[in-house]
Amino acid sequence: MIEIEGLTKRFGPIPAVAGIDLAVAKGEVLGFLGPNGAGKSTTMKMVTGYLAPTTGRVRILGHDVETDPIAAQKCLGYLPEGAPAYADMTPRQFLSFIAEIRGFKGAEINAKVDAAVGKTELDLVLDQPIDTLSKGFKRRVGLAQAILHDPPVLIMDEPTDGLDPNQKHAVRTLLRAMAPDKAIIISTHLLEEVEAICTRAVIIDRGRVVADGTPAELVARSRHHNAVTLSLPKAQAEFAKTKLKALNGVAAIEQLALADGLMELTAFPKGGALLIEDISAMVVAEKWDVKELYAEAGRLDDVFRAITTHDADRAREARA
Amino acid sequence: MNSVWPIFKREFLAYFSTPLAYVFIVIFLFAMGAFTFYIGHFYENGVADLTVFFGYHPWLYLFLVPAIAMRLWAEERRTGTMELLLTLPVPVWATVAGKYLAAWAFTGVALLLTFPIWITVNYLGNPDNGVILASYVGSFLVAGGYLAIGACISASTNNQVIAFVVSVVVCFLFTISGAPLVLDFFRGWAPLVIVNAISSFSVLTHFTAIEAGVIDLRDVIFFFSLIALFLAANVVIIDLKKTG
Predict the structure, then answer these.
(1) Which terminus of chain A, N or C, has less C-beta within 10 A?
(2) Cα–Cα–Cα angle for B194, B209, B35, rounded to 5 degrees
(3) Residues of chain B contacting residue A82, judged by C-beta atoms under 8 Å apart
(4) Taking CB atoms and an 8 Å limit, are B244 and A48 in contact across chains?
(5) Which among B5, B17, B90 has the least Cβ separation from residue A88?
(6) CA dihedral angle for residue A137, residue A143, residue A145, residue A148, rounded to 10 degrees
(7) What is the rounded CA–CA span in Å between residue B78 and residue B100?
(8) Closest CA to A284 of A252, A243, A234
(9) Interface test with A, best of B84, B85, B93, B238 (most A CBs within 10 A)
(10) B1: helix, strand or coil
(11) What is the ipTM for the molecules in this complex?
(12) Residue A311 pLDDT more than 80?
């Protein structure tokens, strides 16, 4: 539903987006990740037609955003960065304005506004000026505005920024419920959000896609993938360490002293080997007083840091 | 066309949901009164017409209209609503037209609120109300012309102070382009056709013609072309800003 081909954007001599190709299909929730200034927002601005690309093109349901912006913009809902809205209006006035401009008439306007208000739980503040609302409510006004016309394509720049954990949960539930018949792109800094709602994660760095896969695939690239952590009394730690090191498939052991005389050991696998079975058998056989024992699927922030800082370091070396 | 109306309505109501409208209208009316009665010596003239009153309009508009126009686009950029507005399925020209017409209608409201002076002059004597009506139309057209200039300049900068100052200067040049101050600068070297052309850009010349009581089609065309020109430039500037 969204096709992005060879998209680039230069601001003067600075390339903000340096060639992005992506296709997002119906039912996909694509999480757009990247350090600040990686080009996430700029890409979204080009997809929605706010900025014209330097080269490349974007199509929304087959409509070229540059040559036929109106048709493309009819099919999409957009939450810009910071969820801007007219501060002097109330959510009801603002959403009615959006409904009217999107071509709804008469009773339809109220029906659309009510539906969007219900989904984003804005009922309580419907007649207060947006100016006076908390950050969380303002964000939800922005969300309501984006989903008002039930668009097949949703583009959201940090939809849960500024929300408390309950509100985040509500927004994620909402997005998950809408996902099956839409194509959704969200940008976020929250890696747990990607794991919670995205079917696909794309990491961009300095204007390029540096990783693209399901969250599970990305997580599998983490050095914590299948790592096993156990905590046991310090007295047993040294012995346990040597035993674990001798185990087939263990690449390295890291240790961390905890309070109450406990030691935490983490065994990292070689090539993603599964360790938990062997280690738990060993714990039972050796009768260690283990207080904690768990295996990890991996950590997305490991992968994120490895990919994005690695590149930045390389660039620094290249310059030096 | 359908999308001009919601934008017009939102924008027009926005003036009245902030103190801006009230402050503007009060200052406009006070200034009009002060100029007419104290500087123009309305009573001392002993003539029942509004020539003095309307004579000051272009000069007052020179400062008050750019004050309205400066926020038209600069404000949208500052608050980020520009991004929202330009990603809605609305052609740029409709957005430009909706915002412009709302601002123009607002100056129209301020102008209409000067009606007590019309009542006064009718109470004091028997003025030619046809001339007064023509003058109101002319005054409204001058406001519209300045507003189009100001809107266009507001679109080209994020800074409201710059938008205001540049608008005042450009409006000033359009106001006095028929005056010796400007014409003498060109007269020495430019061919007569050019000098005449520059002179014909003068808002003041066209307004004075209408104020005399004759709504000549040529004067009306002048104002509408001025407005159309700057609104077209406004659309182009917004499109250019997209390419960053």
Answers:
(1) C
(2) 110
(3) 80
(4) no
(5) B17
(6) -120
(7) 18
(8) A243
(9) B84
(10) coil
(11) 0.86
(12) no
* Chain A touched by B184 (CB under 8 Å): no
Q: Are B163 and B150 in contact (CB under 8 A)?
A: yes
**Which pLDDT belongs to residue B122?**
87
Distance from CA of A105 to the nearest CA of B (A): 11
Res A47 pLDDT > 90: yes
* Helix or strand run (H / E) with residue B157: none
d(CA A194, CA A201): 7
Could you give the C-alpha distances from A128 to A92, B13, B51, B52, B165, in angstroms and in order? 9, 16, 47, 46, 35
A19-37 tens-digit pLDDT: 899 999 999 999 998 888 8
Closest residue of chain A to B13, computed from CA coordinates: A89
Q: Is B19 an interface residue toward A (CB < 8 Å)?
A: no
Could you give the number of structural domains in chain B? 1
Task: Choose among A254, A256, A248: nearest CA to A282.
Answer: A248
> Is the confidence at residue A269, as pLDDT, over 60?
yes
What's the N-to-C CA distance of chain A in angstroms?
43
Residue A199 to residue A76: CA distance in whole angstroms:
19
| Domains of chain A as residue ranges with CATH | 2-220 (3.40.50.300), 228-295 (3.30.70.100)
CA B230 to CA B148: how far, in whole Å?
A: 6
Helix, strand, or coil (residue B57): helix
**Closest Cβ–Cβ partner in B2, B18, B244 for A9:** B244
B119 CB-contact burial (10 Å; exposed 0-12 / middle 13-18 / buried 19+)? exposed
Give the distance from residue A220's alpha carbon to the nearest chain B alpha carbon, in angstroms.
38
Q: Helix axis angle, A91-101 relative to B4-17, nearest 10°?
A: 160
Residue B84 contacts A where some CB pair is shorter than 8 Å:
yes
Range(s) of the domain holding residue B46: 4-242
Question: Taking CB atoms and an 8 Å limit, are A101 and B90 in contact across chains?
Answer: yes
* Angstroms from A103 CA to nearest CA on chain B: 8
Write down the H helix ranges in chain B: 4-17, 19-34, 42-45, 51-55, 57-69, 71-79, 81-86, 92-112, 115-124, 129-156, 160-176, 180-187, 192-200, 203-211, 217-242
